[in-house]
């Protein structure tokens, strides 16, 4: 099979991915072998490229894919050869920058029937992240709930807005600063779009915000978040601030929820719930309550991969970029 690989961790300025022929992977007992038709890129891709090396085995990045099942492990009962599927996979296994990939079937679902492979490949990682952060943390959403998404036009923010609108009665506020990102956040369904100076846009007294989902630049907003949240409010965090001092959160008894989508697969914890979430998301798509967040589509080649990595590192990506084989 063809795959885009590298071996030594490196920065974008030394972009060292290359296309290489590798042996076709063999599925284990719980695996599917998937012919990848399209894959999407996420910030985790460049973070792994910058930090992970291998002396012998080539590293294959990519944790978002849609494709066709070519073989099933002998303990798999829920999938058949020919099924059209989508998934995010496991951070510690070879990724989706390849024509073929093996993946634990518990992390996989049938792709939405209404979407082609490129549209479907844009959804898994970000949908899982947003769903786990917002809908698996015990928050009770009502018509009076106000949720703020920091980074409303990014990959996670785009689907977070949609999931909240599809699954809850909450009012969804999103941040965006450029005309094109403001328009995108509104297209995703945000009830209100505000700029980055949260204290100028939102009241710091009164009932406050119930839920803040910080998808980017958490360190820049952390000082003001306790003033914005109501007592017993919730902060969900997915990015990587150097530190996270939450001592000021005590006065309001605020909850902080870290979200890392790969925790379940890395630790073997309830893997089947990710397949369940993707089935729910597919149902939302097929009933026209959620749509793809794909904003750009490229042919799968090294020049396009580098361009996408650059845009992700610069933080200018709107929605998701997808590459097709």
Provide the fold topology.
Layout: E1 2-5, E2 18-21, E3 31-40, H1 43-51, E4 65-72, E5 84-87, E6 100-104, E7 108-110, H2 117-121, H3 124-135, E8 146-150, H4 155-167, E9 171-175, H5 179-188, E10 192-194, H6 198-201, E11 209-214, H7 218-221, H8 225-228, E12 229-237, E13 255-258, H9 263-267, H10 272-286, E14 294-299, H11 302-314, E15 320-324
Parallel strand pairs: 8-9, 8-11, 9-10, 11-12, 12-13, 14-15
Antiparallel strand pairs: 1-2, 3-4, 3-6, 3-15, 4-5, 5-7
What does this structure look like?
By secondary structure, this protein is of the alpha/beta class. It contains eleven helices and 15 strands. The strands form three sheets. Strands 3, 4, 5, 6, 7, 14 and 15 form a seven-stranded mixed sheet that branches. Helix 4 links the parallel strand 8 and strand 9 (171-175). The mean pLDDT is 97. This is Zinc-type alcohol dehydrogenase-like protein.
